[in-house]
Amino acid sequence: MQVILLGTGYPRPDPERAGPATAVVVGEKLFVVDAGRGVVMRLAATEFPLSALRAVFLTHLHSDHIVGLPDLFNTSWIFKRYTPLELYGPEGTRELAAALLDFFAVDIPVRRDLTEMHPGAGATINTHIVEEGVVYEDEDVRVTAFLVDHRPMGPAFGYRFDLLAPGEPLAPTAAVPSAPAGSVPGSGDEAPASSSALSAPPLAPGEPPMSQAEHAQPVIPSGARNLLLRSIVISGDTRPSQNLIKYAKGADLLIHEAYLPEHFDKVDSPEVAARLKAYHTSAEEVGQVAHEAGVKLLVLTHVVPGDSDEIFLERARKHFKGTIVVGRDPLLDAPAPQISLATVDGRQVALSDFRGRPVIVNFWASWCVPCRDEFPLLAAARARYAGDGLEILGVIHDDSSQSAAAFAATYTAQWPLLVDADDVAWNAYHGAFVPLSYFIDRAGVVRAVSYGPPPSASLDDYIAKIL
Question: What is the distance between the alpha carbons of residues 268 and 278, in angstroms, rounded to a whole number?
Answer without folding.
Answer: 14
